[in-house]
Every structure is written in structure tokens, then in C-alpha cells.
Amino acid sequence: MTFTLGPRAISAGYQLAAFDQIGSTNAEALARARDGERGPKWFVTTEQTAGRGRRQRAWVMPRGNLASSILEVMDVSPAVAATLGFAAGLSLESALQKLAVEANMRRAEPLKFALKWPNDVLAERQKLTGILLEAEAVAGNRLAVVVGIGTNVVAAPEGTPTPATSLAALGVHVGAEELFKGLAEAWVEFRGIWDNGRGFAGIRKAWLDRAFGVGEPVAIRTGTATIEGTFDTIDETGCLIVRTAEGKRMPITAGEVYFGTAASLGAT
């Protein structure tokens, strides 16, 4: 099977560059943007050898998993571009729900997918997908935005801070190519709703409907500090709002998020 775009993505003008193997789809997309590529264009592979996650962590991507990056050049500020990650999470979650229908017929309870702030997709409380946004200014005072979406299709890394899983381990037997096609189709929908940030209110509502841990105890490590409280919501800019024991609502722009009773241990 080969990577292809569905009819919705094709009619919306998306292009596709597929690789048998590549160092990093995000790095390739940014390099193309520096060379004048304006997209919108997907860069995909089933084997990535130098992938990166948040905070420059290595993202393990053995053959058979899906590494995908979408490049779009737009007239938005970096702060607005950052909210596109929420649309990416919704796109992947939507594609997964459709692909898991057959697997759910064999299960006593349907698979539960959820979105973890700021940019993970969870399945059964384990990390299935990581999302990494990067942006650079390009000619014409525009912003090249790359959204990298890496999904564990056939295998998941071990020993990660948040336990990870794969679609195969969950009983969802699909290929990376099939998952990508569904993702690219869903992206057209949620990218359209986002509408260069003008529709973030709708994205925010849909994201919160699928969010993991709302109302639960949470600890966020931001550099050397740890903030503890209850996950209240996300605000109109995408910040995580934590309600402390004193009742103060604190906005969090970045950090490592840990939920539940293991919050103080940094184990979930």
C-alpha cells in the first residue's frame, strides 16, 4: 500500500511528498519552506531515523509507524499559529475513531481516545500520538508553520515518562497509509474550522469535549517549579488553566503535565 490523499484533501489543494525513509518529516518540511515551498503539503513516511519530540527529545519511529508533517504558510502571529496544534489533535482523534470501529466490535468496551494538553493523543490513558509545532518566518513577512504528527501504529517505545501504546497493541490493525489518509481528510475539516485562528473558539470547545483529565488533580513542571491544582479548562489562547488549592486560576503556557495520584512522582 502507498500513501495517498483522499478526495477532500485533493480538492482542497493539498499536496503530498512520501518517503520510504527520512530523518525527520518536520525538518524536511522546514527545509522546503526555506527553499520557497508554500504548501499546503504533507510530508510522510513509515520510518523516521532522526525524529524529535518536544524539548528536543528523540522520537522513536520504527518502520511501520506513521510520521507525518503538514506545511502551511500563513499570515498569522506565532501565538495564533500555536493554537493549530489543538486542531491537529482533533484531526487525529477523529481519524482514529473511524478506524477503530471494527476493533470496537470485538471489545467489551469501546476504545477511549482522549486529548492531553498541550499536544498528545492518548488511548486507554497511554500515549499514542505526539504532536510538534514549529514555525519560521519566510519571505513576504509570512509564517511557515509545520505540524508534525507521529503515531505509534505497530510499536510503541518503552520506558517513557508517560506509558505509551500502539494501535496494534490495542487491537486496531491498520496500516500507516490508511491512518494517514483518514488524518489528511480530517485535517481539512478542522483546519477549516480553525480558520487562521478566527475559529479557535469552536476548536477549543471540541477539544475540551475530548480532553483528558478535566477536573482532575494535575501537576505541571515548568523548568524548576512545579504547580499543582486541578485542571480547570484551557483559555481563549490555548493556555492550560489550573485552579490551585487556594482557588487561584493560573494560566500555564508550557510545561510537563502529570495527572492523578502519581502526579508528584511524574509517572503519568
From TrEMBL:
Catalytic activity: biotin + L-lysyl-[protein] + ATP = N(6)-biotinyl-L-lysyl-[protein] + AMP + diphosphate + H(+)
GO CC, alphabetical: cytoplasm
UniProt entry tagged with the keyword Membrane: no
Keywords: ATP-binding, Biotin, Ligase, Nucleotide-binding
Residue span(s) of domain BPL/LPL catalytic: 1-195
InterPro entries: aa-tRNA-synth_II/BPL/LPL (IPR045864), Biotin_CoA_COase_ligase (IPR004408), BPL_C (IPR003142), BPL_LPL_catalytic (IPR004143), Transcriptional_repressor_C (IPR008988)
Enzyme class: ligase
EC numbers for this chain: 6.3.4.15
PANTHER family given in the database record: BIOTIN PROTEIN LIGASE (PTHR12835), BIOTIN--PROTEIN LIGASE (PTHR12835:SF5)
Listed name of the protein: biotin--[biotin carboxyl-carrier protein] ligase
Species of provenance: Bradyrhizobium lablabi
